[in-house]
Amino acid sequence: MTPRRFAQLAAALDRRQPDLTVLMDDVHKPHNLAAVVRSCDAVGVLEVHAVSPGGEVERFHLRAGGSNRWVPLVQHPDVDVACDSLEAGGHQLVAAHLSPQARDYRQVDYTRPTALLLGSELRGVGARAAARAHLHVSIPMHGLVASLNVSVAAAVILFEAERQRAAAGWYARPRLSRELRTRLLFEWGYPRLARWCRQHGRPYPALDGDGFLAGDPRG
Questions:
Q1: 3-class secondary-structure state, position 23
Q2: Where are the domains of the chain?
Q3: Is residue 102 pLDDT above 80, yes or no?
Q4: What would the pLDDT profile of 38-81 be if each residue is shown by its tens digit?
Q5: Is 151 helix (H, G, I), strand (E, B) or coil?
Q6: DSSP secondary structure string, 74-137?
Q7: Which of 17, 22, 6 has its CA nearest to residue 44?
Q8: pLDDT at res. 31
Q9: CA dihedral 57, 124, 29, 107 (to 10 degrees)
Q10: What is the pTM of this model?
Q11: Does domain 17-167 have CATH number 2.30.30.140?
């Protein structure tokens, strides 16, 4: 850890948006999963949610690296459990779903706590997820294809959310609690030591202002 790297990690955490997330409903192709997670990291999503009946998300999560390290994946047994959890957190559920009720994706207030629902590559958002969503949105298409790839659609909508939130000043001030920020900063900066501490039931050591360890619990 260097002071410069520590400052980069701290700055990224200070731009994290704890009330903006994505729920993937059986999105299972590894390249799409990776691309969605990468876009989530780019706009400051804190964590991603997923329902994966076939277990593809679990296998992806175990072997993925890169942005997956910065955006944890929360898995749910079914879409109702996932939606219940997100609604309990105050999120509006916005499904990328081409239905008669769908509105232009730019006509939604993404400064509200929001969970973007995305469907699988073949069938889109499932019927149950669509029924649970508070809003359906679509991306206007002016060519001959009916829709975008799921990861591209995710990026388009997420960056509209980023635009609105940036205009509201939500990236200009930290939005995480002090406790969560401190924990994540240690886990990002010292992942192996953090894993050791969790395995042995030890508290994380403190960091100084430059990101250096105040003490190593391993002795």
A1: strand
A2: 1-16+176-219, 17-167
A3: yes
A4: 999 999 999 999 997 766 666 665 555 555 689 999 999 999 99
A5: helix
A6: EEESSHHHHHHHHHHTT-EEEEE---TT-EEGGGS-TTS-EEEEEEBTTTBS-HHHHHH-SEEE
A7: 17
A8: 86
A9: -80
A10: 0.90
A11: no
